[in-house]
Amino acid sequence: MSLSAARRAASARARGRIGYALAMRVAVLTDIHGNRLALLAVLADLRRVGADSVVFGGDAVLFGPRPRECWERVLDLGWRTVQGNTDRYIAAFDTATAGKDRAQTDFLRANVDWTAEQLGPALVRELSAMPRQVRIESAAGLLLVVHGVPGDDETGWSRRDDEAAVAAAIGPTEAAAVASGHTHTAMVRHAGGLLAVNCGSVGRSYDGIPGLATYAVLDDASGRWSAELRRVPYDHVSAHADLLAAGTHVSEASAGALLTALDPT
Questions:
Q1: Is the backbone of residue 151 left (phi > 0), alpha (psi -120 to 50) or beta?
Q2: Residue 142, Cα to own-chain centre: how many angstroms?
Q3: How far apart are CA 192 and CA 167, in angstroms?
Q4: Angle, to 10 degrees, between the axis of helix 121-128 and the axis of helix 67-77?
Q5: What SS3 class is residue 91?
Q6: In this predicted structure, what is the pLDDT of residue 104?
Q7: pLDDT tens digits for 36-83?
Q8: For the residues 173-195, what does the mean pLDDT come to?
Q9: CB contact at 8 A, 127 and 71
Q10: How far is CA 172 from its chain centroid?
Q11: What is the mean pLDDT of residues 105-116?
């Protein structure tokens, strides 16, 4: 038995005495955005990592060239899921766009309509049925997976934010760890007693290093939640060409973010 396996076995025995049978490694993926090549790279990496469970944290398909393939794959894998803001746009467009200016509304409408057509009604209903959070109980405390911050899928935090800003964005919570995405920038912060993990983005990273699909693996084997950010190489040049050829209504600047890994806004 390897040293890591021995640690996990010992932790499992200890947890069994207090009502938790197993240590857990939980992979959290967010913001695929219809990028099939990035998703396939992450799936291959997940097989090497050997996570006990996987949670998808939202934004599955909008603004990407392969929405149907990506969303069907997530559903087929049986992962627990969280609805992101762009999933909500597709499921309930009129509500989602309230308060946005006309140009942004028209841009979203064109992309939502194209993506919904690729998905078909049954897969759109699956987006609509997603919960807004996933709770994972552990002897290390509650792990809460949301898209942005608890109660708000339009607000997030990024690697530019310090611990105080992250704690303010997340707000009061019973969770020991909160994992999220939304801003497409990956970072781990210890905000007081809270572990805050921004998982980055599988399909549209804005961390400034092109060609890396990013996600997080959280582990409670030590008795406290810890997190590792995984950055997986994929063929981003082909993904960019796929996006341009797919017939989406994504702007040239937005498509170019796959080549720069920078936020186009």
A1: left
A2: 18
A3: 8
A4: 60
A5: helix
A6: 86
A7: 999 999 999 999 999 999 999 999 999 999 999 999 999 999 999 999
A8: 96
A9: yes
A10: 22
A11: 94
- Tell me how far apart the alpha carbons of residues 184 and 156 are, in angstroms, rounded to a whole number: 10
Q: What is the mean pLDDT of residues 9-16?
A: 36
Tracing tokens 């559903």 back to the chain, one arrives at 75
Strands (DSSP E) contained in the chain are 25-29, 53-56, 80-81, 134-136, 143-145, 177-180, 186-191, 194-199, 212-219, 226-233
Helices (runs of H) and strands (runs of E) counted in the chain: 10, 10
The dihedrals phi and psi of 223, each to the nearest 5 degrees, come to: 95, -10
Which residue segments constitute the domains of the chain, with CATH numbers given?
Answer: 50-198+235-256 (3.60.21.10)
DSSP state of 10: H
Tokens standing for residue 129: 């049925």
Query: In this structure, are residues 100 and 106 in contact, taking their beta carbons and an 8 Å threshold?
Result: no
**Of the candidates 66, 72, 118, 116, which has an alpha carbon nearest to the alpha carbon of residue 91?**
116
Q: Which amino acid is at 171?
A: G
Task: Say yes or no to pLDDT of 1 above 60.
Answer: no
Residue with tokens 């803001």: 85
Distance CA 227, CA 245 (A): 37
Query: Is beta strand 25-29 parallel, antiparallel or unpaired with respect to 212-219?
Result: antiparallel
Asked whether the CA dihedral 103, 152, 89, 203 is positive or negative, the reply is positive
Q: Of 237, 220, 243, which is closest to residue 7 (Cα–Cα)?
A: 220
What is the number of other CB atoms lying within 10 angstroms of the CB of residue 195? Answer: 22
- pLDDT for 94 beyond 50: yes
Model confidence at 22, pLDDT cuts 50, 70, 90, reads low
CA–CA gap between residue 103 and residue 80 (Å, rounded): 34
DSSP reduced 3-state for 216: strand
